[in-house]
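JOB MANIFEST
job_type = single_chain_structure
chain_count = 1
residues = 183
[input]
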Amino acid sequence: MRHLATVCSVSMANVLETYFESSGSDTRQSTTYDVSTINASESEFSGLATLYNVWNVLRGDAIAPDASDFATHSLAIMDSQLTISLLDVSDPNPWRFHYLRRSGAGGSNAANSMPSDLLKDIPCPMRSRALIRTCMKIRETRQPAYHEISKSNRGDVQQFMQLCLPLVTDGAVSRIILGTRKL
């Protein structure tokens, strides 16, 4: 049995949404912050802040950078605590969203042990659903997302920050850059 709760517009000004899900002894809580707070909450030299700033420069006055302008070699940015992935979300069916590229520390071992590159095949069903849900929201809104995530899987607690940045093709979100750093 799963318990889902969403609280929108929490009183703290930079918190946009909190989402909680549990299944047996496994839990996952995600707090979404206003992405404009990233430079204040991350060290100026952190990989997430650098990734956001590169994305923002490439974006210019557009809603998001063009996918062709954000070359995949740009994913080799930065710090050893950062995992960067490039996701393909162009298919209308979210069950077909998949990884195009994964690099860095943190999540690379788990990602490389997946049976396929499909997000739906991520071994933890809660993580899979949460990431697909986030990708669908970003695809619809064409806005970046900045999350603090706390998950407990069989008593093993992990906390990390996650930045999701849309890339567009012909005005529609086709790719998402996913930056993750452990806390």
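[summary]
Strands lie at 2-8, 15-23, 26-33, 82-88, 98-104, 145-153, 156-169, 172-182.
Residues 125-141 form the longest helix (17 residues).
exit_status = 0
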